[in-house]
Task: structure prediction
Amino acid sequence: MLDTITLTAGAGAGSNIFTGLILPFGAMAAIMYFLLIRPQQQQRKRHREMLDNLKKNDWVVTSGGLIGKITQIGDDEVRLNLGDSEIRVLRSMVIDIRGKDGAAKVAPAADEKKS
Result:
């Protein structure tokens, strides 16, 4: 009789593998997706759109920290004027588009938005 109760209890615990093992792994996968993978995909999409919108005479910043004005745009390369010299950089190394004269773009303050 005791053996029957033990077998019945063991079978009930084994059938609950979904909530005991699979559900936590699924929850962790969902958390990793929304905290790690999804933001990186969105950032990559914004960077791709920014690269597609590059045009001549834009001031840009490269991943190496150089600030220059675009003088020529190719498929894979961009030619930058750095003042008294010109360099070629890979298009993918452009990380930001600046305002006029190389000044950083500044978002309007919250008070100015309300006016």
Q: What stands out?
A: Residues 2-50 form one domain. The helical segments are 2-14, 17-52, 110-114. The chain has a mean pLDDT of 83.
